[in-house]
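Hello,

Our lab assistant flagged a job as stuck in the queue for most of the afternoon. It eventually completed. Since we weren't sure the result was trustworthy after the delay, we are filing this so someone can double-check. Below is the sequence as submitted and the structure that was eventually returned. Let us know if re-running is recommended.
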Amino acid sequence: MKRLTNKLFFAVLISVIFSCAFVATTVYVISLLELWIYTKIAILGMALLVLAVLIYLFVLYFTKRLIKPLNELDLEAERKLPVYAELKPFEDNLKEKSNRLEKQMKKVKREHNIQDKVRREFTANVSHELKTPLTSISGYAEIMKNGLVKDEDMIKFSEIIYNETARLITLVGDIIKLSRLDENAIKEQKQIIELCSLCESVISRLEVSAKQHNIKFELIGTKTAIFGIERIIDEMIYNLCDNAIKYNKDGGKVKVSVMQTYSEAVLSVSDTGIGIEKSDAERVFERFYRVNKSHSKEIGGTGLGLSIVKHGAAVHNAEVEIDSTVGVGTTFIIRFPLQ
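-- returned structure --
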């Protein structure tokens, strides 16, 4: 930078000295000539014009020489600086961290896109699931309001409205539960829970439904204590057992097992039902996803039960597994870490 400044100063100095000498010489020569004053002025003007052209050419030539090294620089080429042996581990560590950070950024972006897609699908599904019972309720209520229902059909229409309303209430309740689990907006404190007793309580509440479907329950296991939120774990067990009844065969069985190892408590719910295809097994925990839509429509449900199970497990740092064979049955396993 200092050398460039010196060259510029030298060029300006030469230009000034040359200009002064040229002008002085021209004026002196003109003064010696016996010419009219106008002729002298014209000669002086031409001399100044020649001086300007010469200065321009000199500056242009000198500028090109100055910027020639800059033009020869290859700014696109990668600069390869020598690396000292002492700094090699630091350079490798820096590259490793940079690659790891880039992978994490790509992973975060990919997860964000997935979450955004799930959110859009959830909004669309909620709109559809809410619209269906509301349309049914509105239609039957309008017919009744206009007096187009026979007296003997009044109870039937009222029952339809009641069932659709109950379905709507259940759906809204499940959406609220799932929303709270998503936002981790849970006020209850975790406490010690006896898992086997909780399973027994859930089975007793489902006895009527089990008898209607001719399903037999079997509970095996020993007392196993875990640390969690009782309401959420109760909902998880209830949803799994309820699905085991709904998607079972007539005269089938539901086996609930509670075991404990040195590091975890294992809860499993097995049925002898219709089973799930492997391609569907990966998606059963998605919101509103139904394996058999026609069968699901007959048995009811909101399509959010297993999604609540998955999110409830996440609250307790538990893992959910599924093992299913079409025509044989399905087993859901929840592994709770022991604290």
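-- support follow-up --
The delay was a queue issue, not a problem with the job. The result is valid. The chain has a mean pLDDT of 78. The CA atoms of residues 23 and 48 lie 7 Å apart.
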